[in-house]
Design a protein that fits this description.
Blueprint: E1 7-11, H1 16-27, H2 31-36, H3 44-61, E2 66-71, E3 74-80, H4 94-104, H5 106-122, E4 129-130, E5 134-136, H6 145-158, E6 165-170, H7 176-181, E7 185-192, E8 195-203
Parallel strand pairs: 4-6
Antiparallel strand pairs: 1-2, 2-3, 3-5, 6-8, 7-8
């Protein structure tokens, strides 16, 4: 395992391939994805790969921002960001829907759309950043890189005076206390089949104060 420090970097479409690989590994064991894309049925890994590919492609295709952590030029953590001024509902894109239907099937696409609509209904009014996908590669988890990623994300979002905060959601109970420690407040719960999806809001994140030289 490299001992180099993690570097924060804004990502563009040139990182799409690495982003797809990272987010696939971050989400393939996620309980929400396991339900949405039917982990018990053959072809689950392919459906997760296809979903991540379509989400990443749509995100970078709209030239939306993403922030990453790299160690020795390897992408090991990242977050897709939907800013309030440009937040777009990808599920309204017919091209996206058709690609999802062709790659994941009708039932999984329907489950994903229902999950997405239920989470959107929990969101607070007003302008805020939304994090559609974020994660740290499993090989690098447990090393406080998630904290570093969120700190960098909050610093970046705090530069937007028009945003009132950051919203994310998770169905993984392992992360609930982690997000609360980072200043997130739970604002809603959504039943996703047998999974309870928790919606979190971090109000008006402020940039970290650094000591003067």
């Amino acid at each position: 395992m490299p001992n180099s420090p993690a570097e924060v970097r804004m990502l563009d479409g040139g990182y799409a391939r690495e982003a797809r690989s990272l987010l696939y590994h971050a989400y393939r064991h996620d309980p929400t994805f396991a339900y949405l894309f039917e982990a018990e049925r053959p072809g689950y890994d392919q459906r997760v790969r296809a979903t991540v590919r379509e989400l990443v492609q749509q995100h970078f295709g709209e030239d939306l921002p993403a922030i990453g952590l790299l160690i020795d030029d390897r992408l090991i953590g990242m977050a897709l960001i939907a800013p309030p001024q440009r937040r777009m509902d990808i599920t309204e894109s017919w091209n996206w829907r058709m690609r999802m239907l062709l790659t994941t099937g009708f039932r999984c696409t329907k489950r994903y759309l229902e999950y997405h609509d239920a989470v959107i209904a929990c969101l607070p009014p007003g302008p805020y950043h939304v994090l559609p996908l974020l994660g740290v590669h499993p090989e690098y988890q447990g090393k406080h890189l998630g904290e570093q990623l969120l700190e960098a994300l909050h610093n970046w979002c705090a530069e937007d005076a028009g945003s009132q905060g950051v919203v994310l959601d998770t169905g993984n109970a392992h992360y609930l206390d982690f997000y609360k420690r980072q200043g997130y407040q739970e604002i809603g719960e959504v039943a996703v089949g047998p999974i309870i999806e928790h919606v979190f809001f971090h109000p008006s994140p402020q940039p970290a104060i650094k000591a003067s030289a």
